[in-house]
Structures are given as structure tokens and as C-alpha cells.
Amino acid sequence: MFGDSYYTGLVIKIMIYAVFALSLELLVGQTGLVCFGHAAFFGIAAYTAALLTPQAGPVSIFFLLPAALIVTALYALITGALSLRTKGIYFIMVTLAFSQMAYFVFHDTKIGRGSDGIYLYFKPLVELGGWAPFSLEDGSTFYYFVLGALVLTYAFLAMLLNSRFGRALAGIRVNEQRMRAAGFSTFPYKLTAFVVSGTLAGLAGFLFALKDGFVNPEFLSWHQSGAVLLMIILGGMGSLRGAVLGAFILTMLQEVFQSQEIFGDFASHWNLSLGLAIIVLVALLPKGVIGLPAQLGARFNKGTRP
């Protein structure tokens, strides 16, 4: 696989989007907070990595990664503290508004250098006291680095959801008023989930900036927020495995429908094909692809019942 840069890049892209989808799953699937501005965290971390990397040479990853995550976490803390004062459709609209404001900051000011974006000429150095165990410039090393990030993110969220904190989030998702009546102050739980979710989305954005060596305002666009929401819907909301599966499905659908070898000139209209495919999948699989075995099992049992 490492001999073909296209397939290596595609798998890396899927793994990064899986981290992105997992971050939103914590908020939407586990806490019941539908956020439509998640791309802001993705893009802010990517821009932080690009802005802090000079054109003259690489910087240490032990500086660059924490800096990107801290900036994203602070943005999530501020916007979360304000957004979580609202509920339902108002929460969706406020998170979208914050995301669009961040988009225009990078699109319309010199900070983000407009729609031209910023090139990131060097991947960061992994170096301790002059000892460099590996280099991220190597394609196979970067592949394993992203794979490690995905595994750690999944393991972290699995442990978090099995903890008392995770059970409190589940209670908030099912019935927040009942949680309050039981003595839980739900706001700190929701704000913590919002910050953790935003920071993990920032990790995905940081990795994507390193992968492409380029960032532009599209990283923060509402299209990006919609795409990651589609990933967890297609995979199956309420499941970490569903989020990973959804990232794989949506990325592969995009790749297939953009392929001129398969669709010829019609590939230029790939958005139309993708939209139709999503409609069909959502209609046939209301619980996502992760719910397909249960759906087939129920249909089979119904068919064999005397």
C-alpha cells in the first residue's frame, strides 16, 4: 500500500475524517447536542499549525501540536459557554453563526491570507534533546502516526463514555430535566463535552494540515460541518464504531463518484450522484450502516415467524 501514494493518502484521509467524526459523535450521538459549526475547530487548529510553522524550517511537534489544541480548546470554551445557553434549533443556529464568523475571519482578513490560504512547507520535527526517533516527512511513518492518533482517540472516548462522566452525558441526552431533578448541574457536563469534542476536532484539523501541507478557509466552511454530520448519520448515530464507519463510507462515496474512470464526464456532477446515494442510504438504513445487521435480523425473524 505504501508503494502507491494515492491509496496511502486515501487511507490517511479516511483515518483523519474518522477522528473528526468521533469528535462530533461525542457531542451529537452521546450528549444530544446537534452542532452545525464543528468545522470551525477543525479549521482553527489547521490554521494555527500553518501560521506557527515558519517558511524557513520545521518546528518541534511538542510545541506545535499543544499550541494548536490549546487554541482550539480556548475557542471551544468561549463559544461553548455562549452557545450552551440556548437549546434545540437555536443551539444549531448559534454554533453555525460562530463557525461562519470564524470562516470570514480567515477568509476576509490578512490572518488567513484570504481564499489563497497558507502553505505549510514542513511537517513538524519529532525530536527530543537532539534525538529524532522518526520523521513525519516519511509517508509510511506519517501513516502510522495518524493511525496512532485514531486509535488513541477511539480508546479515549470509549473510556470516557464508560466513566461516570459518560453516563451523565447519556442521562442528559435522554432527559436533561430529569438529570437536573436528580441533582446534576448539567451545564458543566455539556460544556466539558463541548470542549473535549472541539479539541478532538482540532486534532483532526491539525493532522489534515500536515497531510496536505496547505490550509484555506474551506476548512471552516459549513459544507465541512455538514459533511462530518453526514458521516455520523450514515454510520449510525450513538456508536463510536458507526462514526468511524461513516467516515469511511462518505469518503469512499466521494472518491467513487468523482472517478472519471467509472462515471466518465458525468463525474463532474458528482455532487448530484452523492446526494442521491445519501438519500437512498438514509431512507433504507434509518439507524445507519451499523444498524444493518439488526435490521436484517428483524426482517428475517418476521419472515420466519409462523
Polypeptide structure, described:
α2 runs antiparallel to α3 (61-83). It contains 13 helices and 2 strands. Helices cover 70% and strands 1% of the residues. The chain is an all-alpha fold. The protein has helices spanning 5-28, 39-52, 61-83, 88-108, 139-161, 164-174, 176-181, 186-212, 222-235, 240-257, 260-263, 270-284, 292-304, and strands at residues 118-119, 214-215. It has a two-stranded antiparallel ribbon.
Secondary-structure class: mainly alpha
Order of helices and strands: HHHHEHHHHEHHHHH
Overall morphology: globular
* Number of continuous helical runs: 13
Indicate the mean pLDDT: 91
How far from one another are the termini? 51 Å
Overall radius of gyration: 20 Å
Helix content range of the residues, please? 55-70%
> Strands of the largest sheet, in order across it?
1-2
Relative strand content: under 5%
Low-confidence stretches: none
The number of E-state strands comes to: 2
Topology at a glance:
Layout: H1 5-28, H2 39-52, H3 61-83, H4 88-108, E1 118-119, H5 139-161, H6 164-174, H7 176-181, H8 186-212, E2 214-215, H9 222-235, H10 240-257, H11 260-263, H12 270-284, H13 292-304
Antiparallel strand pairs: 1-2
Helix pairs in contact: 1-5, 1-8, 1-9, 1-10, 2-3, 2-4, 2-8, 3-8, 5-8, 6-8, 9-10
